[in-house]
Design goal:
The protein has 20 helices and two strands. It is globular. It starts with a helix and ends in an 8-residue tail after the last helix. With 475 residues, the chain is mainly alpha-helical. 72% of the residues lie in helices and 1% in strands. The protein has one domain (80-467): Up-down Bundle (Growth Hormone, Chain: A). α4 runs antiparallel to α11 (175-200), α12 (209-261) crosses α16 and α14 (285-314) packs parallel to α19 (408-436). Strands 1-2 form a two-stranded antiparallel sheet. The longest helix has 53 residues, at 209-261. It is a multi-pass membrane protein. Belongs to the major facilitator superfamily. Monocarboxylate porter (TC 2.A.1.13) family. Its main location: membrane. This is Monocarboxylate permease-like protein. It holds the Pfam family MFS_1.
Length: 475
Amino acid sequence: MAAKQHSLGSQSSHSSFQDTVMGSKPELLRPETNEQDGSFDEEKGTVATAERPTLGDDGQRVVAAASPPAFDPRENPDGGFDAWLVVLGAFCCMFCSFGWINCIGVFQEYYETHQLRGYSTSTVSWIPSMETFLMFFLGPFIGYFFDCYGPRYILLTGTCLHVFGVMMASLASEYYQIILAQGICSAAGASMCFYPAMSVMPTWFFHKRAAAFGIMAAGSSTGGVIFPIMVNKLIPKIGFGWTMRVCGFLILALMIVANVTVKSRLPPRPKPFHIMQFIRPLKETPYLLTVLGSFFFFFAMFLPINYLILQAETLGMSSRLAEYLIPILNGASFFGRVLPGVAADKIGRYNVMTIMMSFTGILVLALWMPAASNAPIIVFAALYGFGSGSFVSLAPSLVAQISDVREIGVRNGTVFAIISFAALCSNPIGGALVAHWDGEYTGLQIFGGIMALSGACTILAARIVLAGTKVVAKV
């Protein structure tokens, strides 16, 4: 009885603050609208200060007796030396993690023609698919440790694993060796570099959050340009092994910068591990639809990155020109990660995400599928990079918009863990479709375009749940 009274007392102690910030009925995901113009009130709709109910041993909804003070993201500095230093470190993290993943198409083509030339396209594609899958699948666990202990030890461990995996890949010659080194060890390390960078940003920015995410995500574009060119230019000169070692040393240097600069404004808050804290957010309709939309889009996102070089060469493009397709794609994605983020802060993050996903799906069906010469393939690479690049910067800001910042690590991790299964399956499915169509890429392109448009429709549904059907609403 005493524990129950204490719980009720804790709940009532926050009521006046909740009434002030959230209204008389604090509902975290209920969007507030302006009755005069119907616009989404971001000052209220994106702030999560109400205590979240948890489930007791008897299945009843209770409020924890010892709750940390509410964190109001509107008090974030939104700039300053420390904040922008964190952005620099996060940029380095994205360069070394997602930037490395963005050059998987180069390794797909190289392995098929060298170490693994006796294996089918679908079999070889399991290497980049496993790399992508593991990087994202570890999200909930890394997010949990981030919420409990902060980014420091996660980044240090990730740096060691990522560099070690790349160095071991330089010595690998067998399929299983490449899977273990590049597909598992390096990918696990990249995951530990990726999530802390993504999770610290909401603790430093509020009004400029999407723009800050865009600058951070531009690191993956920069890495996606530099790594493929490095690999393609260095292999003929110093061999595959030393090329991988040079990449490993570059990753090590940048991650030293990240380890020094990336930090969170929230103090570590150790808490017991409960599987329900990963599942519970899926009961929130906007969050669930956001996850599903991201899942569908992820089925399409890596198909051009992985197969564009091979498809271009089958249409007669020279290998010297084809090797620049991925750098072109990733170079354009630099602008796709920054400019939509800036626009999202002004007209709404869900609005911009829906537009960019639709644009990407239309590109695959209307430009890539009928392309039969060099010019349209190069144009597609640039435009696809711009369209798909927005996902990396906007997806975390969407989650932050509908989440309690104190739980951002777990909730971001849950999103990316679920969509990792799409990343795992998409490339092997693409390879199977190519084989089924006797070497033609039409089936792969249709699959990719439909999945991207399905993601756009689902994100649009989440936007409607948040703010209704008003076109001018900022969501």
